[in-house]
């Protein structure tokens, strides 16, 4: 089941077409990567989902029904540009924002106590936002985003300002929210995080959705027939073993074994290369090399600009 469906949504600002008939299905309970270069239209789409702006045409459906103003309380949004009031105290602001999302003061305090202890920021309660580092303020805003238990969470560059330890902590929290049933839209330029966290992606470029799918399926779609073969035996012999269907890209020597990077020139079965080399060397490991999301991102955007 899809928690959110974007059906042929278009939006124009003056002469600029920000979105052009964009269609996206976001499965419930998934982490969904919303990707694209700066200015591609991602922020416009996020603002439409949050009903900050309305589309010129098309529609957004939340659990099968047209998105309504009251659905906002079912959504949590962490924008890239943080929106905390710098002069307010941390606790005072968190309490206010929790009640703004429909929680009672008592329930807000109960949930804030849990999250402030979990994220080890209890000592910041009476500090002003302007006294905090970017990473500390990010923790506070993360808490206020998820406090009311929204069904759909939108995180725009959530790791900005975090050191590696806190980044890893936040990744674990995102995965835990998913395990508890939340759906997460994750917008980032960090493709390593996409591979680590996302189940599905959509890539938007120049107002169009140009790539959709499951992360593993998308990476497989753009594979280039490159294999990594770790073997024990004469490395020079590998060159003589390969026939015209293969190209040896490199051999990485080790004191105990060698790794050959081999590219296929024609379509082959997975076993054809193994059958060719096994009589001559001892194969320790063998795998097809899948492109990283960063490679896919660059390739697809470049193709769309040709």
Summed up, the helix count is 10
Q: Architecture of the largest domain in CATH?
A: 3-Layer(aba) Sandwich
**Could you tell me the strand content as a percent range?**
25-35%
Give the CA-based shape: globular
Kindly report the name of the CATH homologous superfamily of the largest domain: P-loop containing nucleotide triphosphate hydrolases
List the keywords:
alpha/beta, single chain, Alpha-Beta Plaits, 4-stranded antiparallel beta sheet, Rossmann fold, 14 strands, 306 residues
Structure description:
With 306 residues, the chain is α/β, with parallel strands linked by helices. The protein folds into two domains: 219 residues, P-loop containing nucleotide triphosphate hydrolases (Rossmann fold, 3-Layer(aba) Sandwich), CATH 3.40.50; 66 residues, Alpha-Beta Plaits. 34% of the residues lie in helices and 30% in strands. The protein contains ten helices and 14 strands. It has a six-stranded mixed sheet. A hairpin with a 4-residue loop joins strand 12 and strand 13. The model has no long low-confidence stretch (mean pLDDT 91).
What is the structure about, briefly put?
By secondary structure, the protein is α/β, with parallel strands linked by helices. The chain has helices at residues 42-49, 90-100, 105-118, 134-146, 164-179, 191-197, 215-221, 235-241, 270-277, 293-304; strands at 2-13, 16-27, 31-35, 57-62, 65-66, 75-78, 152-156, 183-187, 200-205, 208-214, 226-232, 246-253, 258-264, 282-288.
């Amino acid at each position: 089941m899809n928690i959110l469906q974007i059906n042929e949504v278009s939006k124009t600002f003056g002469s600029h077409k920000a979105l052009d008939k964009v269609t996206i299905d976001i499965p419930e309970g998934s982490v969904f990567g919303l990707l694209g270069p700066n200015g591609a239209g991602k922020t416009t789409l996020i603002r439409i989902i949050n009903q900050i702006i309305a589309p010129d045409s098309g529609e957004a459906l939340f659990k099968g029904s047209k998105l309504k103003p009251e659905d906002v309380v079912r959504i949590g949004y962490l924008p890239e540009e943080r929106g905390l009031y710098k002069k307010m105290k941390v606790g005072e602001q968190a309490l206010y924002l929790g009640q703004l999302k429909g929680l009672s003061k008592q329930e807000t305090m109960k949930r804030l106590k849990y999250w402030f202890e979990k994220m080890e920021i209890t000592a910041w309660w009476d500090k002003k936002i302007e006294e905090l580092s970017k990473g500390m303020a990010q923790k506070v805003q993360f808490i206020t985003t998820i406090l009311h238990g929204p069904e759909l969470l939108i995180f725009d560059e959530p790791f900005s300002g975090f050191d590696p330890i806190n980044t890893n902590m936040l990744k674990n929290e995102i995965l835990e929210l998913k395990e508890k049933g939340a759906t997460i839209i994750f917008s980032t330029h960090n493709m390593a995080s996409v591979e680590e966290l996302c189940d599905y992606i959509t890539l938007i470029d120049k107002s169009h959705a140009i790539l959709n799918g499951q992360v593993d399926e998308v990476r497989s779609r753009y594979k280039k027939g490159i294999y990594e073969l770790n073997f024990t035996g004469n490395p020079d012999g590998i060159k003589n073993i390969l026939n015209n269907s293969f190209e040896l890209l490199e051999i990485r020597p080790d004191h105990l074994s060698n790794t050959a990077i081999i590219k296929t020139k024609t379509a082959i079965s997975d076993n054809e290369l193994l059958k060719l080399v096994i009589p001559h060397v001892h194969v320790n490991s063998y795998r097809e090399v899948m492109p990283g999301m960063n490679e896919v991102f660059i390739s697809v955007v470049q193709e769309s600009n040709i």
